[in-house]
Amino acid sequence: MSTVGCFNSICTRNVKHVRLIKNCYPKKEGEKGPRSSELSYLTFYASSRPAKLTKVGRYLDHKIQREISKGQKQYIEVSLAILKALIQSCHHDLNLFSKWIIRILNRTLDTRDSHLVELSEDTFVTFCHYHDGSTLGLDPVFRSDFEILLGKFAYFCNYTNEEQDKALRMQYIGHRALQAEVTSSALHGSDFITQLDIILPALLETLLTSGEADLSETSTSTQSDLNSRMVEVLASQTSSIFFSKSNGTAVRMALNLLYQFTEEKNQWWPPDRVLSVIELILDSVQPQYRYLLISETMQRLQVSSSSDRNYLTSAHASQIAILNTILNDTKAPLVGVSVLEVLNTLFTMLLEMLQNAHFRSEPPADQNDTQALYEFTIHDGILHSLAGLAAQNYYQNQLDDMMGYFVAKLCTNTTLEQIDGLPIQKYRQVVLLCLDQIVSTAQSVSVLRDNASERGSTSSRLDTNISMGSWTTAIPLLTDKTRETRIHFARLLAHYLEATSPSSSVANSEEPLHLLTQHNDILFVNTLHHTIVEWVQDSDFTAADARAICVLLYLLTCRFGIDATVKSNSLLFKLQVMVRTNAVKDVVRQRAIAAAIVEWFTMIADFYHISSLGEYMSGIRDERIQANAWPSFPLNGAIIMIPDEVPYPSSDLQNQSPVQSFVDRDIVVEMLTSQVRLRDSHDRHGLELESKLYAEWGTEAFASSECSLRIRTSQDLKDNKPKLASPLQNPELKEPIEKKETIKVENLKEALAGTKLQPPPPPPPSQQQQQQQHPHQKVESSNSSASGSDSVPSDTAAGRGDGAHSRRSSTVSQHKADINTLLNTLHLNQDAQRGPLKEKFVGLTELLFRGVELYEQQDPQAFWDAYLILPVNVPAFIKVVQSTPEEQLLRARHNISKFFEACLDRLHPSTEASMAAADQTRQQHAMQLLSCLMRQLFLKKRLTHFNIIQMIASGLDRADEVFSRLARTVGHLLEKPSTRSDALLLAISLVTGNDNVNQNNLNGYFMQNDLSNILVEVIVDEASTIEDLRNVVMLWGLLENYNKYEIKNPYTTRLARCKNSIAFEKLYRMCLTTLDDMTSQYIHLKDDSETLTQSVVSYMASWFSGPSISKKTIANMDSSEAAANLPPYHSALLLVLYDVLTSNPHYTTIMLQLCAQDTANDNSKSTLIGALLSYASYLFEHNRNPRAFIYTRLMLTTILNMTENPSIMNYMIKEESKEYVRLCRQRPTPLPAIKKPRSLFCLTLDVVLIFLKHNIKKKLDIVTYSLAFSCIHRVLLCLKNRKIRLEYHWTEMWPIITATLHFIATHISDLELRNEFDMLVSTMMDVINLCASHGEAFLSDTLSYDTLYYEIIRASEDINTLATYVSRTTVKKAGPDRSPALSPSDFTNVKLICNHFNPILDEWQTNHKASFHTPEKVIANLSPLMNAAVIKDNYSTLELKPVPKADQHTPYNEISGEMGFFRQVLRTATTDYIGHVADMLATRASPIPSGPF
Questions:
Q1: Phi then psi for 709, rounded to 5 degrees?
Q2: I need a surface site. Which of 105, 721, 1181, 1190 has the fewest CB within 10 A?
Q3: What's the rounded Cα separation, in Å, for the pair 476 and 472?
Q4: What angle (nearest 5°) sits at the alpha carbon of residue 9, between those of residues 7 and 13?
Q5: Shortest CA distance to 435 belongs to which of 556, 347, 335?
Q6: pTM more than 0.85
């Protein structure tokens, strides 16, 4: 009886695993739990014989089902305990019985027994800890059972029952189970969307509908004192874990679910709960994905706004509150947010919401008025969102851009009454409110300006990203006809000037500071002055306007110092002249303007501490008061307090007393010039200052005093501009091609003799004389010798069947005889005129490309049949096309078109099923000739793609038909094993073009005719050879990289979504073999595995070996010629490997499974990861040419993506992943040679260190070195997060890193000029900071930690050099991957280490009476043990600061920073592989008959 039969009939008495399971159950009454000794035996048996796990799981499922039906609760508990023990002991083979685990848990949950449910949850938690989700995409039944189980736990999360304790207990169980799944790597498997739909609604139900608003508490608790608050905290923890592990796509999907759930449950208002959830997400999500909260919220807000024109809804109010919360969270900067896009959207929404409402700046008194509450939340929320956007500096000149946006929105020159549906006054008030928010927020940000040193010792309270030029176009708003608008703008402008004004040290400076030097600043001041002249003549000029002028001019002096004082002085005396000459008509206005002038000079006197000027102005004020010519309203007071409207008092309106006493300019100028601190150092007597103060406003003398910094061109560069070369012209336009007479059999001899064709050149005179003396001597040849083996075979000789013979007419044999005659005559003519005979194939090919229409016979098909049956001489064919100039090819385009059409016809004959041997030969020859023809045409530099398409397709009107047919035909040929190899070479030749795949227009036809499914079938087909696999994979890689950033490429999509495990397994094996082959080519240069003894023996043997024994050549590894032909051409496949690793998670899963299988029984067996690292080590040591440079950077990029892949890192952590990998040692390296299985972490670090060691040079490749340090950082970060102490030779790693640091510091003058230098320093310091701050988490011993500190102290001078560079650089840009910018804080800890230990070493030097004078020398001469002691003894007093930047990373993103590089990789890979294809075409050509024909 079979085992299955035994289980079906429950006849299991003789099966060992059944007996072992039964022995685990209690035998005596009162015993609880499984018997420990028997359980240990069972787990040992299962772990040592993994193949039995499936049977064990099946039997346990059957047993629990029977126990549930009998109600044997005690036995069920024992069964669950056994199951949990099996999971823990056999977790490496969990996939073998995971299906039965899920079935068992589904059964126990259905009992609804709280104790069994709790045990089931505990078992599920253990299961999730080890489950990686790899089987979810392979077994649909298991996936369905798993999703059902998750659904049951999700149901428990919001379980309700009359018994409150039971309900809380079930809710706690459900949330614990969901948290276990969220922490598991199985969540992000193939069914992520389904799991998300199950898990997230359950969490949101707890957090939104039944939870409290405050989710900040994160403490955990046990079930002994359960309450609803603990359940909510557990749900918030689960949500936080989920978002912290999610990528961008997952975050976007989760946010959509959140908003849908909130909409369905109507949980928008009050917004406290949803805001708490958003804050939780914002704190949890990875920094690079935070911007998605903004984009998704705004998108949903726009969609809901377009569908519902009623903006005063709870959804709108809550969504605006969400934006306000996100944008004002200073602890979570939004990396990657589009500032102007967000700004425009917020402002547009504000305008739309004010169409039928007024701006509400205060909350309603009645809190029950929901509409008013919504209105206040929306209006105030948008304004505060703008403020939050301005509060954080996302890029340089951000505030300037924001100000420029709103200043443009003021529309100062418009005559429209309405803008965007709002009256112009209301519209401008809204814009001014937004501007006020930005300026106020910027003022509150307490940051030091980088350019403060350029203005002496001044400092400012506002970042100078808001430039004066942003305001210039808005200044005419001061003359707006609406008083409220111009006063509001004046207040805002005064607010800005006061915020950007330097400190009081400007007034107290011993010498004047000339701050008005920039062109934009001068333009701003001039525009403001001209506007003031117009402003004072406005008939609606009020007291508020006068006070605004006084304050603005005073703030100009505060902002620009003496320069603004001089210019304003001239302006004010101009205004005084206007008052005296009655240019200002109204007496009340005259008194206000004259009083404003006096008040301005009074404030200037206080500013510069000129008491005499102040007393003079007080006297003028008293005179006017006595003459009743002083206004009754005040013009002094607080700087910013400019009321919207200060009406003239009635007493002023009734008073018509004119101003009689004016300010004397001579007295003012004398008082100002007498102040030494207002004069420049060279202006000893104040004459220059006096001339400026006397300059009349608006005159040439006044304009000449301006000084600005502008950029001017030194010469006219028109003649130096590059010019385009004229393109190749069609020869038809220059010289018409005369009509050639058709060559037939009848006139063939005449044609070959040259009577009808071009006459041959005359022979030299000596030969003519010889021919005249011996006219009878001519070259003779017989027809029999010419009609030998190269004659056209008959159908019978070719093996053609009767069915194929019926396709032709009865005259075909006669035509073939004519063609044979033609060929024979050709050889006679060649013997007569050209000396040596040529092959028939070569002779006909030459005539075809000369334009001779040989096929114009009575049956052209017979000619092409005869031509294509001839043996193909690929080198000769290539030589013919290469030697034919482009003009001749255009003349012969009719022949080339017929040639192409004939080959295409024979690629896909109509009767494929009964194809004869001769037709198969023609088909093979047609593929070879088309491959060579297309390749050689593409290589013609003066032939464009337009010329080639026109030449081959006989015009552009037939191009789509011809090339679409060709693409489909190639697909059919790929499906047949007999034609697959040649078809692959043809396809690659077509796709590569002139080595620039992206510029090859023919690839568009392969996009229209998708062959990706055929390519997968070719990979899966067992008939495909290893070379076919390489070719088809490379073809797929070329097609999927074709303009993949610009178009929707079906091959890219198919590569990312492919789930064919067989294809991926064959791809894995092919890549493994290819990497091993390429590595062996490097080893052939020098066998770096020889021991010293073997080397000596080999050397001595070479002395005594005879001539018959070949001596081994030892390559000079420092010579560039040693590896000139390396890397091998198969390195082009690395591009495809990178693409599939980064785009298809399923391939990663298959790859890791195969790696685990390969190392399961023999860890010395190479895996793909090990082979990749081995080849990388050889490639890095031989990076001596441009090709090697390209592949080196590609390899480091691949390794970086591997170290950022959680699945691969989880595999590397496992003990079973250890393997022996041969690393390159052909050059001296400080790394020890370890010939035993090692952790992949160690191997990865070794490979990257090999790169750092052997690629340092003066023209340092900064980007590649940044990639190398990023790889080290990702490995160390993983070790730190997992708390893995790695046994590694750390003491050899630190000197390599500090040596690189020293090189960079030494060559900083050259390197700092390059754009990527900051990124290199930042990544290097991230590695050093991570090791220095968290080294105890992953370093294997204290000596490694102490040695790190020793090397940091030795590098003190280099560290200070880089720190000085960072501190003196004003602008720090984020890297192309949006990583945090380099900052001085990156050097804080290393400086602390150096500053802490250097005095201690100085003291040691004094105590030991050492003769060395510097700490570096002392450290260098100490023994390693003594160094360790000094550092170790004083480490406890060292206090380091946290470096958050080193604890995180921005994932690598190919778009858009690396797009240019990957285009270069594609170009290099194409050039390499098409060269290999050309070699294969030559070897696949038919054998050439020997001897003359």
A1: -100, 115
A2: 721
A3: 8
A4: 65
A5: 347
A6: no
Q: For 618-655, how does the pLDDT look when each residue is reduced to its tens digit (9 = 90+)?
A: 999 999 989 888 887 777 654 344 444 456 666 767 77
pLDDT at 956: 67
CB 1333 within 8 A of CB 1442: yes
Tell me the two tokens of residue 1153. 């499974």
Helix axes 98-109, 114-130, angle to 10 degrees: 160
pLDDT surpassing 70 at residue 549:
yes
List all residues 6 or more positions away from 820 whose beta carbon is below 8 Å from its beta carbon.
787, 791, 792, 866
1347, 1290 Cβ separation under 8 angstroms: yes
For 358, the token pair is 């007024």
Angle between helices 1012-1020 and 959-975 in degrees, nearest 10: 20
Tokens at residue 275, please?
A: 């805001």
Task: Output 249-252 pairs: Cβ under 8 A, ≥24 positions apart.
Answer: 250/188, 250/192, 250/196, 251/285, 251/289, 251/292, 252/292, 252/296
**Calpha distance 592→811 (Å, rounded):** 116
Q: How far is CA 699 from CA 458, 567, 570, in A?
A: 33, 12, 10
Which residue, chain included where needed, has tokens 């350019």?
Answer: 451
The C-alpha angle with vertex 667 and arms to 664 and 668, in degrees rounded to 5, equals 85
CB-based contact 1394:1356 (threshold 8 Å): yes
Region of 924 on the Ramachandran plot (φ > 0 left; ψ -120 to 50 alpha; else beta):
alpha
- Give the separation between CA 1134 and CA 789, rounded to whole angstroms: 46
DSSP string, 336-396: T--HHHHHHHHHHHHHHHTTTS----S--S-TT-HHHHHHHHHHHHHHHHHHHHHHS--ST
Q: What are the tokens at 918?
A: 């001769």
Q: DSSP 3-state assignment of 546? A: helix
Q: Is 646 exposed, middle or buried (0-12, 13-18, 19+ CB in 10 A)?
A: middle
Q: Which of 756, 922, 759 is nearest to 841 (CA)?
A: 922
Could you tell me which of 1271, 1249, 1119, 1257 has the C-alpha nearest to residue 1189? 1257
Nearest to residue 1378, comparing CAs of 1281, 1325, 1455, 1277?
1455
Is the peptide bond preceding residue 1127 cis, with omega within 30 degrees of 0?
Answer: yes
Q: Tell me the CB-side half-sphere exposure of residue 335, using CA atoms within 13 A.
A: 20
Give buried/exposed letters for 243-263 (b at 16+ CB in 10 A, else e). Answer: bebbebebbbbbbebbbebbe
Alpha helices, DSSP H only, in 1283-1387? Answer: 1290-1306, 1308-1311, 1317-1334, 1342-1354, 1356-1368
Tokens of 23: 């022995």
Q: Are 380 and 360 in contact (CB under 8 A)?
A: yes
DSSP-assigned letters across all residues of 596-614:
HHHHHHHHHHHHHT-HHHH
Amino acid at 550: C
- CA 31, 33, 34, 37 torsion-angle sign: negative
* Residue count of the chain: 1493
Return d(Cα 79, Cα 1104) in angstroms, integer.
Answer: 76
Q: 1271-1297: per-residue pLDDT in tens?
A: 999 999 999 988 899 999 999 999 999
Give the H/E segment covering residue 243: helix 228-245
Q: What is the dihedral sign for C-alpha 988, 992, 994, 1000?
A: positive
Reported as type and span, the H/E element at residue 293 is helix 291-307
Rounded to whole angstroms, the Cα distance separating 1391 from 1396 reads 8
Contact by Cβ (8 Å): 1416, 1357: yes
742, amino acid identity = T
Q: What is the pLDDT of residues 1066-1116, one digit of tens each?
A: 999 999 999 999 999 988 888 777 554 554 555 455 444 444 434 444 455
